[in-house]
Amino acid sequence: MEWLVFLHVVAAVVGLGPAYAFPLILKKEKSLFEVKRMVNLVARLEVLPKIFGGLTFLSGLLLVWLGNYGTFFTLWIGGALVLFILAEVVIIGFLTPAAKKLSAALSELSEQGASETDEHSQGLLTKVRNYHIIACVIVVVIIAFMVVKPI
User: Fold this and answer.
1) More confident site: 1 or 64
2) Beta-carbon contacts of residue 62 (< 8 Å; ≥ 6 apart)
3) What is the arithmetic mean of pLDDT over 5-25?
4) Which secondary structure element, helix H or strand E, spans residue 2, and what is its range?
């Protein structure tokens, strides 16, 4: 069972750790080249949370099923599960569409020969950054549930 806990923790650190840098990477910037570079970097790094976040989720389910941690109705387990679903709703339902709109807006500006971002793309960049922050805060609460284990 210790190996599964180890896998769960390592997957969480490797998978979710980089996501905490996303709001810092996506800083307010006017240069079209820099904004495109930041967005592309985040897009490449997002593979880690996708793969290892899934592994964290699956190993967590296995730990509940195989371990002596309680049931899904235990506050910290059920709460973490509900928060995980909420984080996925934020990511899939809001962040991903906003990021796609931002990429499209940046491509359009590039095609027009612009060197700086416009108000629309700056607004989208702010939205994407804020959705990343919301997801990160939710995951911090999940981690608090895992560590503190409130009844």
Assistant:
1) 64
2) 4
3) 92
4) helix 2-16
Helix axes 47-66, 2-16, angle to 10 degrees: 160
Q: Which of 68, 54, 45, 52 is nearest to 13 (CA)?
A: 52
On the question of pLDDT at 16 being above 90, the answer is no
Give buried/exposed letters for 76-100 (b at 16+ CB in 10 A, else e).
Answer: bbeebbebbeebeebbeebbeebbe
31 DSSP β-pair partners: 116
Among 52, 53, 76, 54, residue whose Cα is nearest residue 64: 76
What is the C-alpha end-to-end distance of the chain, expressed in Å? Answer: 22
Phi first, then psi: give them for residue 116, nearest 5 degrees. -125, 155
pTM: 0.90
116 beta partners: 31
**Is-contact 134 20, C-beta < 8 A?**
no
Residue 60 has pLDDT above 90, yes or no: yes
pLDDT score for 9: 93
